[in-house]
Amino acid sequence: MLKRLEIVGFKSFARKTLLDFSSAATAIVGPNGSGKSNVAEAFRFALGEQSMKSMRGKRSEDLIWSGSHTTQRSNRASVAIVFDNRKRIFPKLDFEEVSVERAVFRDGSSEYLINGTKVRLRDIQELLASANIGETGHHIISQGEADRILLAHPRERRAMLEDALGLKVFEFKKQEAQRKLEKTQDNVREVEALRREIAPHIRFLQKQVEKIERAEELMRELATLARTYLSVEEAYIATERAAANERRGAANERLTTASAELAAFDERATTDSEGMKRAEAIRQAEREVDRITSERSALGREIGRVEGGLHEAKKRSASVAREPYVKVTREDLSTLREVVEEQSKIVEGETVEPGAVRAALLALRAAVGAFFERYAAPNDDFLAEEEHTVFKLENERVELMKKDEELEGAVERARSSLMKAREAALAHEETGREEKRRILGLAESKAREEGSVVREDGRLRELQMLADELERDRAEVLALAGVAAFSYEPLELAPEERRAQEDRKRQLERLKIRVEEAGGTGEDVRKEYTDATEREAFLMRELEDLSKSAEGLAELIRDLDDELTKTFAEGLAKVNHSFGEYFAIMFGGGGAKLVLEEFDAVEEDEESDEYEEETAGKKKQGKPGIEISVNLPKKRVQSLMQLSGGERALTSIALIFAMSQVNPPPFLILDETDAALDEANSRRYGDMIEELAKRSQLIVISHNRETMSRAGILYGVTMGADGVSKLLSVKFEEAAAVAK
Ligand code: ATP
């Protein structure tokens, strides 16, 4: 329900002007040029009209009060339409009153307001559509435009019809759905582009991950093999080391014992030197025997000399006493000669034993001595002297004999001690042989044990090398396969286990190389892959969701299309029904109807090859427009163009009324639609106005008294010298005065 119109600064309405619409039909009357049409335009303006032409302007400035010599121009034009919303003709707005307002400024900018709140034009349009107030203005029939619907292009006419049928709501919904669908399709394309974009990266990452998995498989293999290898090797080294240490310990013990025993022998050998002592004793005994023997033999010679001297002395003493004169006998002389010659011969030659020389000299001395004794000594003195010599020699001989006897005893004693020494030496030699055998045995076992110790040391060094190598292996395996390679229990080693080790070691080395080549693990790559696949999955879901919503939207659009088609077909049928009736009333017979245009007849200004599709001789191109087919009583009229001005007005009025019957708009503004009617038709028009007013509020701008007579409220518009339109309520009589 229209409640009122508030106009400020719009066109000739310089001052705030209120029009109250409490009646079903309101007539606006007044002289030409007073500003009546400006009221209809104020409605258009407030409802969001975008065409300046339909508001008789070029620029938006033309809509603003331009001032006169008495009244200053305005900077702002605004019009508000206030609706009664108690019946919720605007279902979305929970207010008793709804005002739709538009203002325009000199800079050309517009403002739209719903109940004083700034909104977009679109919000206004949607709001109006929801109350069946369309923008095509079929409910505002401007002056001179009564037959606009007749002149309109079939497609335009269709738009008017659709508007009248309230299809705008569906159209809006459809457009909304289409916009959403397009957006969704854009999103789909975007997501697909993203997927295409990341696909190679995912493939790359997947390959990397596969590589990593292979590497990890190899690492696991390495760890498994390493566990066996390391545990066996460890056990082997430990067992072998223990055994070697034990053997070495035992050998060392034996070595220590043997060494100690040998040392004891050596000590005895160096401190005692029994053998040497005994040999020395023998040698000493032998020397004693030799010394005493040679002493005795020298003594024997001394005795011989003394005895020889004694014999001579005795002989001389006897001869001295018997013979006073010396007579050298030939015998004595030759004896002397013989001795000298004999002894000389003995000492002749270069090498003569000293003993022989000595013996020779002694013999010579004895011979010379004897000769001297016999011939040289004086008798008496000589005799006494000789006797004394015998005596002396006699004593000497006794002394020597005593000594010889002593020496004989000493030799005997020396010989017996030599014997004893020899016997002792012999006995000693016997015990020495035993010991030697023992020492040899000890030395042998010492050497053997030394060998053992050296061998075991060697073995231990060997094991140490194995242990070092094992350490290196452990470090390498740790680096390549991680701690998993060390998770094994200590092993009891079966000896045959070790044999397989060499083989394992080879495999281990091969695996190590392969693991190294495989390039190790990459948690970051894996993470990246997971992220990427998650993102891909997310995009897939997104795509699914989008596809689903696109499907939903497409379905909604199809449903809306169906709804539109159905509503349109039903509406068209209803409109045609009323159109025919009104037409018959207006023309007192005949008929008229709206028909869907034949495509062949359509100008192909919107032709697009894509949609050019022949179907049963008709081109499917957009929606078919609406043609009007009329059948005047008693006349044969082919074309609308052939109708008279009055006939055209009647036809268009019949159509407008028919259209508003199907889906009555809340209000209908008719600006001098009745201008071309004669009296009889004016009455029929008046009847229809009354009829229409039952369904829609009517605002008629008219000079027709018949029309005025049907209105409940009459407004007179006047314009003074100041050019400002003024509004006043008038009585029918006052109004009729300005009527034709
Ligand atoms: P008719 O009965 O002849 O159709 P009308 O009552 O419908 O006349 P309108 O056409 O509504 O009269 O009024 C036109 C008047 O409005 C003119 O006098 C014009 O000068 C005035 N007018 C239009 N725009 C403006 C404006 N921007 N500022 C001031 N006056 C304006």
Question: Looking at the structure, what is the overall shape?
Answer: rod-shaped
Low-confidence stretches: 601-620
The biggest sheet amounts to: 6 strands, antiparallel
Radius of gyration: 83 Å
Number of strands: 16
Q: Strand arrangement, largest sheet?
A: 2-1-4-5-6-7
Give the CATH topology of the domain at 1-133 and 666-740.
Rossmann fold
Q: What do we call the CATH homologous superfamily of the domain at 1-133 and 666-740?
A: P-loop containing nucleotide triphosphate hydrolases
Task: Indicate the mean pLDDT.
Answer: 84
List keywords for this structure.
740 residues; six-stranded antiparallel sheet; single chain; 62% helix; six-stranded mixed sheet; alpha/beta; Rossmann fold; rod-shaped; Helix Hairpins; binds adenosine-5'-triphosphate; 11% strand
